[in-house]
Amino acid sequence: MNVTSTRGEAKQIPALQAVLEGIADDGGLFVPTAFPRLDTDALRRDSEKGYPEVAARILAQFFEIDHATLRSLTAEAYAAFDVPEIVPLRNLGGGAHVMELFHGPTLAFKDMALQVLPRLMSLALEKYGGREDALVLTATSGDTGKAALEGFRDVPRTSVFVFYPLDGVAEMQRLQMTTQRGANVGVCAVKGNFDDAQTGVKQLFMDKDFNARIRRAGRFLSSANSINIGRLVPQIAYYCHSYARLVAAGEISCGDGVDFVVPTGNFGNILAGHYAREMGLPVRKLVCASNSNNVLTDFFNRGEYDARREFFKTMSPSMDILVSSNLERLLYEICDRDCAVVRKWMGALAEKGCYDIPAAARERLAEGFYADFCPDAETAAAIRKTFEEKKYLMDPHTAVAMAVYEKYRARVGDAAPAVIVSTASPYKFTPDVWRALTGETVADAFEAAARLSAFTGTAIPPGIGELRELPEIHGAATEKDDLGGAVMNFLAGS
Ligand SMILES: *Cc1c(COP(=O)(O)O)cnc(C)c1O
Known about the structure:
binds pyridoxal-5'-phosphate; globular; five-stranded parallel β-sheet; 16 strands
């Protein structure tokens, strides 16, 4: 299928070609020209056969690639996951289920898409690529970076360069990146927060001189951030698959509405849930759960997006974001695809740091979304309470979703089935998880991991244990206004 830009000033192109470009020429995001329909009978059959089957069928609805190719693509993409179900659903009782998306090689939900994206990009390079190779530039709030490095490492005709906020990521997240092996990878810290890194990378994409220099170096820029349509589409699959598993388990009847509670930062994960709903999946509410950086909570509840506020560093760093890129794709839907309106809102955001949507649009949003947030103290309490009452151990991002889910249930007062989306392994955030469980401070992340394992009877994932032994090979840091210089250094050295 073709995709078009949310800002309406770029030409429509096939979705697979958009995977190469990342962002549209007019600064907008690529969106499908129409939503394909989900075939629920096929979904139920596919989900019996396993997750890769479901993922392949969803991909086929967006990308013009034959089924056999997609089927082997998804089989390979999910082969390294550490559980046979790939996306296990844990039943916590009372209608609450946890969908675990962190069983991939880097222990966060980013692997669900970033194991697929490089494979799509190779196919796109074959079909639409010129002579240049792809240089994948990525800003990370913690988990995308490692997942992109792991996904693209040693993939022919690509290289990948990651910017992360210095002091803005957890110790395990940082080590996962700085120890990354591979001939085509680079990592650099930015002296600033995630929004600085993300804005800086977006500016490089729009900078004509920089793009020309990259071309002279035999490359073109592409993105592994969730602005890339090649990340969004694979994420639709787990909403569909989990729904089908709930039907198969007799928890719901086909057609029943289910709520999904999503710990949200850049709005990529939850947007995929919205796309699944637009395709026909019976999603009732999408609950947008934020930490203290609650710009989205205010947006949904008041119709005003205002990024001019204090930035908080929280124990859920991958959600420490004030400018949620993918919201632009939802705005495009709620203004009935009126690109002039999207341009106006995005222009106001860039110039003033805020914009408002009309009351009618806000009310329409409220039909499909519910939004709330919780500060760190509630996040920690949710980790502890869930472990004590259910013997279920959660990471802080998942705990934000759990805490918001409890508040949502108390307010809405019904027990419709809900799926809490779990986005990372607790072993990525061991000092905070340990403190949440016991009140004790253990600064060393590995020591905290060892205690956590002994206390909870859960195993330390091999990808975490090995970090202690691996040499740190990527130590560069840059000022936030010189991301381009860091990229050129990387190219000169590789
Ligand atoms: C990226 C991330 C999120 C936020 O997802 P978005 O798609 O950016 O909203 C939440 N939790 C974890 C662990 C993440 O890595």
